[in-house]
Amino acid sequence: MFLTVIYPGILFFLSSLFLSETPRWLFRRGRMTEARAALRRGLSEQETAIAWQEMEDLARARSEAAASRTGDSLWRRKYVVPFVLACAVLALTQTTGINSILSFLVIISPPGRHDSAPRDSGRCGGEAAELRDDAGGVALVDRRGRRFLLRVGTGGVVIALLAAGLIFHRIEGRTADVRPVLEAAQAGIV
User: Fold this and answer.
1) First to last CA, the chain
2) Count of CB atoms within 10 A of residue 55's CB?
3) CA-CA distance, 21 to 38, in Å (whole number)?
4) C-beta of residue 96 within 8 angstroms of C-beta of residue 157
5) How many angstroms from the chain centroid is the CA of residue 74?
6) How far apart are CA 122 and CA 108, in angstroms?
7) 63-122 pLDDT tens trace
8) Is the pTM higher than 0.90?
9) How far apart are CA 12 and CA 14, in angstroms?
């Protein structure tokens, strides 16, 4: 059971070796040729020109702001609000319980399934799907932005949890309560 998680982890690690830096990171480091090439990999020529202009404008605004400020406190609204929002997103991600479902996927039996078939294949399938979705997110983050991915990902989690809850509720609604039978049998034995 514990060995099954190493295969997707190794695949994820090896895949991460082929990731390139984002165009904005390259731009900030002064690696303009690589930044423009990274933009061209995911965008059309016209979109590349627009994104390049935005990066130049942002760099100019940052340098002007840095020259004009003497001391910038981390307690300013422009820093505190994004930090609080990031903490809220992280906390809400944990409270959805999706990580628990993914961690205990091997132990949780699908509704209506009572056989002892190996569940490790389900774990590997879940990890493979997670790896596929993460790779898709990495490919989309520069094109669509983090906000879009956050909305789509959160919506997907909500839909998946609702669907799982409805499936479990429907299956559990069809089960019979055997408590009276067991209590009667136990009373007859004792």
Assistant:
1) 41
2) 19
3) 8
4) yes
5) 28
6) 10
7) 877 766 655 677 777 888 888 988 888 888 777 776 676 666 666 655 555 555 555 566
8) no
9) 6
